[in-house]
């Protein structure tokens, strides 16, 4: 199987040998990193956990002085940072099994729960399994548009798509609830592809988890501040909103900016390990930024590295990135990265553009990369 | 107390309260038991004796039982079992003697690095190798090498209780210097005339009486084999048929004792504890042994395939996802046995560890909790 990619500079052909070579180079990079895991990674994770717990305690505590507007703002900021760290650099990464090697019972992917309404086990199914195995494959990766949005030209258009920017905005604001509902696969239930009994079990789990989350944020903590009940409630709602907007923005930058590739089931049948790696690289996009920015994004700003090695501690991605980038350059593959403004701008542009009927929008097959997979290069006329 | 913890955990949800408290101080935990090392004694070559102060959840141990402790080595938490050497009870302190095994990761680490202030995980005492209540009329304790720890706890417990019956403690060691807790043995031998303590050093052929000043019988026999046999048993405890016998030590010693007791049809009075080192086999490619899926009560011959496939061909339907080691859907706990990671080639045999079934194959007998 050969992968042919067309770049701005003309077509690019990777021979099966080259693909295998690239796969081996990435396997080696993986092995090298895994062999080096140790105290440093443990200490890093614990330092993030300490910071997160610190911000949380500070945020909850400052709410008691929430009648002073600057303090209220500081409380919301601290709580927002806490929730962002909890969900991204800790929760997302721990639940990927990135720290399972530490054999720390509380930080194992099997048991970890995060500070959001979506139960960990459901998220692990839709994200770790479906999204990471079938990354950007149409009809397999449910993260393409999250069954709400049209994020790729090959998804059909209908008149309801016109409201897409609004749906996207609503999804952004209610992101944690959207994530929670993701594993229900509502459209599959409606079309009869999914049994009600499956859904009932999921709903019970969601009710339990969301109930606990809502209880502490919207009832118990506000009540504990007595007369400041509504001030604290408003603060907690705001912190959850801030986290939602941030998480949505970072996550949408991972696979939707211009230049990111999608694939068909046909193209990706019987993939080799090397081809799997290439799909992960072409289907993901990075965000450039400072160290603090990477931490606050849970290193999902290194989405390409994350998709190559989802179970390697995310804090290692910045170290791995130059080597991945060098490999991309060596084989002529694109390495999609840019500052947050550029990436998120291109995501919203895509959301708006794909809301319109295809007849009104110029197809954007270039300058992006077209991936074709054929048995022989000659079959595609090269 | 527990209700209060649950109440507070409503506020710390989804994280358990201990995940906050441990950041303040590792021993400040509501639920999880830990222990702080308060004293370290390296006076005996090749072993280290740790005095631990457990957190308030500690319920004590019965003489002969073991505890599991967990330490972090290069970022990884490792757990091992050791028998407390102190007398039974709910003391404020707990004493463990750890022999530094040449290939022992944890024992070597503790031997080199343990220091006061270090905090380790601690699991409640467990194990059926223990003195019964009420005590038997006569007690014979036999140990070899590091197997001394559970029987020493029994000996010290009996001494503390001023046990009136006959007690013989027969211990085999490479040399007198490597016998830990000689001061305790000394004191017990001095104080309790009904306790007989005999140390054997069969590897030393030079002298018959090693330490003439010792209150116990400390010999390296020149004539006999020096190892355990029927004559030796008759000599030190002629009443052994009426006693309860507790043995802990290397395989050869255990086998020698078991053989005699079986021949005498006294198996029901013999209690043994094996300290087996589970080492990964050298050649991991040969498929042998049995794979047990203990939660479903299914067992099958190991055919060398990944555990997920073996579970499925045994008729089970474990949860799975990517089948390529990325999604962690199929992670399950390996109770016992050794598995090989098919991606890295590494073998691992620590008990009770979560592993990914799709990329791990069993090496010999394995027990998976699905």
Automatic annotation (TrEMBL), chain A:
Pfam families: FA_desaturase (PF00487)
UniProt xrefs under InterPro entries: FA_desaturase_dom, Fatty_acid_desaturase
CDD domains (alphabetical): Delta6-FADS-like (cd03506)
Location of the Fatty acid desaturase domain: 71-337
Signal peptide: none
Residue ranges of coiled coil: none
Protein known as: Acyl-CoA desaturase
Automatic annotation (TrEMBL), chain B:
Name of the protein described by the UniProt record: Ferredoxin reductase
UniProt cross-references to PANTHER family, sorted A to Z: NADH OXIDOREDUCTASE HCR (PTHR47354)
Residues in FAD-binding FR-type domain copies: 30-132
Secretion signal span: none
UniProt keyword annotation of Oxidoreductase present: yes
Keyword tags: 2Fe-2S, FAD, Flavoprotein, Iron, Iron-sulfur, Metal-binding, Oxidoreductase
Keyword flag Iron-sulfur: yes
InterPro entries per the UniProt record, alphabetical: 2Fe-2S_ferredoxin-type (IPR001041), Cbr1-like_FAD-bd_dom (IPR008333), FAD-bd_FR_type (IPR017927), MRET (IPR050415), OxRdtase_FAD/NAD-bd (IPR001433)
Cofactor: FAD
């Amino acid at each position: 199987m050969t992968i042919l990619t067309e770049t701005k500079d003309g077509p690019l052909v990777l021979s099966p040998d080259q693909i295998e070579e690239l796969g081996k180079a990435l396997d080696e990079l993986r092995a090298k990193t895994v062999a080096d895991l140790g105290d440093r990674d443990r200490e890093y994770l614990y330092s993030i956990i300490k910071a997160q717990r610190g911000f949380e305690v500070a945020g909850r505590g400052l709410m008691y002085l929430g009648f002073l507007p600057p303090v209220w703002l500081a409380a919301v900021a601290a709580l927002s940072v806490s929730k962002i760290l909890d969900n991204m650099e800790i929760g997302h990464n721990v639940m990927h099994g990135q720290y399972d090697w530490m054999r720390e019972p509380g930080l194992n992917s099997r048991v970890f729960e995060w500070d959001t309404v979506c139960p960990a086990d459901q998220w692990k199914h839709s994200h770790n399994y479906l999204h990471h195995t079938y990354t950007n494959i149409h009809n397999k990766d449910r993260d393409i548009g999250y069954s709400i949005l049209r994020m790729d030209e090959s998804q059909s258009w209908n008149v309801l798509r016109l409201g897409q920017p609004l749906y996207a905005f609503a999804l952004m604001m209610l992101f944690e609830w959207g994530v929670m509902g993701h594993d229900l696969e509502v459209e599959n239930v409606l079309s009869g592809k999914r049994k009600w009994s499956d859904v009932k079990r999921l709903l019970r789990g969601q009710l339990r988890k969301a109930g606990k989350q809502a209880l502490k944020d919207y009832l118990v903590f506000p009540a504990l501040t007595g007369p400041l009940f509504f001030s604290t409630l408003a603060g907690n709602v705001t912190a959850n909103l801030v986290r939602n907007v941030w998480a949505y923005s970072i996550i949408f930058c991972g696979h939707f900016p211009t230049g990111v590739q999608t694939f068909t089931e046909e193209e990706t049948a019987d993939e080799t390990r090397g081809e799997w790696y290439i799909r992960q690289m072409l289907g993901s996009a990075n965000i450039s930024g400072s160290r603090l920015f990477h931490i606050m994004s849970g290193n999902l700003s290194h989405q390409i590295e994350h998709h190559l090695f989802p179970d390697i501690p995310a804090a290692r991605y910045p170290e791995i990135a130059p080597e991945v980038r060098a490999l991309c350059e060596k084989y002529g593959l694109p390495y999609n990265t840019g500052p947050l403004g550029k990436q998120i701008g291109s995501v919203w542009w895509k959301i708006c553009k794909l809301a319109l009927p295809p007849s009104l929008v110029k197809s954007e097959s270039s300058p992006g990369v077209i991936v074709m997979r054929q048995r022989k290069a000659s079959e595609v006329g090269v | 107390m527990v209700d209060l913890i649950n109440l507070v955990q409503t506020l710390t949800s989804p994280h358990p309260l201990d995940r906050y408290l441990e950041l303040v101080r590792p021993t400040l935990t509501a639920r999880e038991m830990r222990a702080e090392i308060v004293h370290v004694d390296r006076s005996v070559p090749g072993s280290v004796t740790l005095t631990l102060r457990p957190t308030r959840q500690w319920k004590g141990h019965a003489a002969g039982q073991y505890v599991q402790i967990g330490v972090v080595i290069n970022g990884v938490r490792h757990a091992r079992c050791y028998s407390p050497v102190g007398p039974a009870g709910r003391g404020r302190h707990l004493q463990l003697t750890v022999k530094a095994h040449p290939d022992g990761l944890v024992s070597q680490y503790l031997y080199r690095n343990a220091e006061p202030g270090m905090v380790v995980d601690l699991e409640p005492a467990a194990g059926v190798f223990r003195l019964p209540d009420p005590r038997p009329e006569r007690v014979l304790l036999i140990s070899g090498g590091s197997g001394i720890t559970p029987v020493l706890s029994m000996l010290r417990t009996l001494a503390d209780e001023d046990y009136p019956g006959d007690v013989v403690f027969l211990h085999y060691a490479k040399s007198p210097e490597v016998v830990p807790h000689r001061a305790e043995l000394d004191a017990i031998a001095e104080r309790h005339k009904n306790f007989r303590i005999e140390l054997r050093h069969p590897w030393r052929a030079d002298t018959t009486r090693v330490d003439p000043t010792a209150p116990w019988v400390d010999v390296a026999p020149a004539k006999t084999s020096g190892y355990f046999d029927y004559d030796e048993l008759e000599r030190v405890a002629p009443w052994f048929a009426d006693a309860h016998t507790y043995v802990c030590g290397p395989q050869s010693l255990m086998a020698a004792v078991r053989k005699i007791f079986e021949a005498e049809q006294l198996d029901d009075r013999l209690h043994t504890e094996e300290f087996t080192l589970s080492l990964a086999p050298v050649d991991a490619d040969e498929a042998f042994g049995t794979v047990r899926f203990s939660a479903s009560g299914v067992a099958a011959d190991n055919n060398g395939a990944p555990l997920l496939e073996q579970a499925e061909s045994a008729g089970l339907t474990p949860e799975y996802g990517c089948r390529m080691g990325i999604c962690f859907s199929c992670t399950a706990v390996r109770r016992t046995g050794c598995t090989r990671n098919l991606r890295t080639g590494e073998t691992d045999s620590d008990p009770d560890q979560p592993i990914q079934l799709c990329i791990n194959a069993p090496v010999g007998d394995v027990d998976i909790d699905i």
